[in-house]
Automatic annotation (TrEMBL):
InterPro entries: DHquinase_II, DHquinase_II_CS, DHquinase_II_sf
Species this chain originates from: Pseudomonas fluorescens
Residues at which substrate binds: 75, 88, 102-103
Protein family membership: Belongs to the type-II 3-dehydroquinase family.
One Gene Ontology molecular-function label: 3-dehydroquinate dehydratase activity
Protein name: 3-dehydroquinate dehydratase
Site, Transition state stabilizer: residue positions: 19
Catalysed reactions listed for this entry: 3-dehydroquinate = 3-dehydroshikimate + H2O
Gene Ontology terms describing biological process: amino acid biosynthetic process; aromatic amino acid family biosynthetic process; chorismate biosynthetic process; quinate catabolic process
Classification via Pfam families: DHquinase_II
Associated pathway: Metabolic intermediate biosynthesis; chorismate biosynthesis; chorismate from D-erythrose 4-phosphate and phosphoenolpyruvate: step 3/7
Amino acid sequence: MSTPVFILNGPNLNMLGKREPEIYGHTTLAEIEQRCLQLAAELNLDCSFRQTNFEGQMVEWIHEAYEKGAAVIINPAGFSFHSIPVLDALKLIEAPLMEVHISNIHARDAQHRHSIISLVADGVICGLGPLGYLLGLRAVADAVESNGR
């Protein structure tokens, strides 16, 4: 039986490839999704890839991931810096939890440097572009294998 993993994407990531390509590149979220689904299948992970611009929807998906015992890879985007509801929901997750950012948030302006989501993440990958998602999947697969789940 494959391990469920939710890849959750926050606000404005649906505009990847169009929005600030000098920061986020030209790869679209649909292209990232295809790469993730392919790798997840190879790693025996049952991947659900989602994006929302709405905080409440993100919280609902995190609750769903918790109920299903799913690992979570989250690119919280703008929720990274202020969303206590998303942070509190992520505290429920008992399976591996990886935070991904396309840009290196530590090299950005002051308002984009400190992610509160990192407080609960098992790992944080930033600055590697779309590759970060694939590394997140590999980290989840490794954690699952190490824990015998």
